Here is the input.
Amino acid sequence: MQKVILLLMGIMLIGIFFRFTNLSPFKVYPDAYENLIIAENIHTYHSVVGYLGSNGMLYPDFFMWTRPGYALLIDEVNLVTKNMTLAAQIIAFVAGILAIPLAFFVIKTIFRSNSYALASAFLLAISFNHTVWSGFIMTETIGVLFILFFLLSLFATINKKTSFANPADLLTGFLFTVAV
Here is the structure.
């Protein structure tokens, strides 16, 4: 068991190294402005929909066009950093790192195999897309993180007999809602 933990830590260090060396100097991918604008709208107008400047147009045009989860996280971290761009990048970076051990636990829960679980963590650690998106202000790493949380919750409780309004089932449903 200690060997598995050491291997997982080594895999995490590889993932951290790749994500750190791939931090984008631009920090913002063109689509990322949406998340920053929504975070600013929530902060300023207490709504996802807000004005672009004084007497500006409403953005986004309607609420369902966006998912506010990442923007809410940006606002929370912004309370500490006082820099919305830095807050968003920290969230993407940390989500990319946290997804590595989470992938291990999801696969271990499903297959009951340490070797499969280590392989999944390694593949996520070296994944080009996951590494690159962890350096941008994008929702992809948050999406992967919450999908992994959902899958862990689902497969941890799928074979158990449950009752109506079981908290574990409610948590699984909530995680699915957040992930999707």
About this structure: Strands lie at 50-51, 58-59. The first strand starts at residue 50 and ends at 51. Helices lie at 2-21, 32-45, 69-81, 84-111, 114-126, 128-133, 140-157, 167-179. The mean pLDDT is 88.
